[in-house]
Amino acid sequence: MIPADALLCYCRPGFEPELAAELGERAALAGHPGYARTDRNSGYVEFLGADAGALTRAMPFDSLIFARQKLARFAELRGLDPKDRITPILRALEATLGNTYTFGELWVEHPDSDEAKPLAGLARAFGNALRPVLRKGGWLTQFDDSRKSRLHVVFLSGDHVLLAIGEAGDSAPWPLGIPRLRMHADAPSRSALKLEEALMVLMSEKERERLFRDGMRGADLGAAPGGWSWVLMRQGLRVISVDNGPLQDKLLESGRVEHLREDGFHWHPRAPLDWMVCDMVEQPRRVAERMGTWFREGWCRHAIFNLKLPMKKRWDETRLCLSLFEERAGKPLQVRARQLYHDREEITVFATGRLC
After folding, report:
1. What is the pLDDT of residues 259-295, one digit of tens each?
2. Three-point CA angle 15, 121, 37, nearest 5°
3. pTM higher than 0.85
4. Which chain regions cross the lipid bilayer (predicted)?
5. What is the CATH number of domain 6-177?
6. What is the DSSP code (8-state) at residue 89?
7. Sequence ranges of the binding site for S-adenosyl-L-methionine
8. Whether 250 contacts 186, CB under 8 Å
């Protein structure tokens, strides 16, 4: 069992209150109450409790919505000497973990905030200096091994560092919890990045292989100019793009996309589809109820949709909308939700009646 004194989670800057509220509620429901410590726009939240190790086990990363990354923090080092930051880190490792623990990777990071971004150069240079020292001391495997847990060294300032552990399978596999995606030249809009990220974050590789097969049929509600339709098409689907607005001509030339000039919020298919996706700008409760209706009526088997959140009480609205969705669906569903890197004032939801 890995010792921890706090749960450390990264988030989108400005959403620290939402993440803190989510962690507090989930911890209380699991019987492990604690308290959150954070600053607005810092890009991270620390959650402390009597048994931080139990907290990390009680809140699987896949269940968290506003967290980009989930780590078990085991040390906080302040007042580091810029001439020797390595020695205090080695002492903290030995004091907490002893001499028998070996990590598969070292990630030296900083929060994704405006205040912390200038630390990027320091983080890179320090990682290059610390990595060989850890390998020589047996703290780090000689070659990166993503199957083992990771050591995270998180710079909050030049003399303030957090040490944390990321467990393989219970944390994001990308530095800062951000999958780095590039805008494809053929994508009709940047919104395509949101759905591409959703497929990476909300589904495993095995699930993607089973739930997306060539020849499947899907619908994109509120499709124009066609970013999400383009992603579905690249997954092998034949797509009905529903929107009164225009689509990119290349989509229609592909032969895989049919454009219906109708209101995506009210349209529904005559026969069941494999997939439905939706990124319409509409009140989140209305969207949640409409998405639930799609499952209740059997119009789709799987769906990915966005819920645009209000400016205040966003965690409360998130809980309410997800409850409305499942209540309206009226059947057992697997539901995962996350505020993605490419999201803004919204969360992305994946729902399915069956998984691998």
Report:
1. 999 999 999 999 999 999 999 999 999 999 999 999 9
2. 30
3. yes
4. none
5. 3.30.2300.20
6. H
7. 191, 224-227, 243, 263, 279
8. yes
Torsion from C-alpha of 154, 159, 160, 164, nearest 10 degrees:
40
Q: Where are the alpha helices (DSSP H) in the chain?
A: 16-29, 52-58, 86-97, 120-136, 192-201, 205-211, 227-234, 249-253, 284-296, 314-329
Q: Which two tokens stand for residue 299?
A: 């119009």
Look at residue 1 in the predicted model and tell me its pLDDT. Answer: 61
Give the residue numbers of the binding site: 191, 224-227, 243, 263, 279
Q: How far apart are CA 226 and CA 242, in angstroms?
A: 10
Collect all residues with Cβ–Cβ distance below 8 Å to 93 and sequence separation of at least 6.
Answer: 101, 139, 151, 163
Query: What are the phi and psi torsion angles at 255 (to 5°)?
Result: 80, 0
Active-site position among 70, 250, 308, 313: 308
Distances (CA, A) of 300 to 133, 210, 241, 243, 262: 54, 16, 15, 18, 18
| Residue 50 in this model has a pLDDT that exceeds 70 | no
Please, are residues 326 and 292 in contact by the beta-carbon 8 Å criterion? Answer: yes
Q: Quote the Cα angle for 45-50-53, to 5°.
A: 70
Contacts of 335 (CB under 8 A, 6+ apart): 322, 325, 326, 349, 350, 351
pLDDT of residue 274: 97
Pairing label, strands 34-37, 44-49: antiparallel
User: Percent of the chain beyond pLDDT 90?
Assistant: 86
Per-residue pLDDT band for 2 (boundaries 50, 70, 90) equals low
Is residue 308 among the annotated active site residues? yes
Q: Which amino acid is at 49?
A: G
pLDDT (0 to 100) of residue 356: 44
pLDDT over 80 at 53, yes or no: no
284 in Cβ contact with 227 (< 8 Å): no
Report yes or no: 322 and 333 within 8 Å, Cβ to Cβ.
no
The residues, any chain, with a CB within 8 Å of residue 196's CB and separated by 6 or more, are: 181, 231
The CATH classification number of 192-352 equals 3.40.50.150
DSSP notation for 245-285 = S---HHHHHTSSEEEE-S-TTT---SS-EEEEEE---S-HH
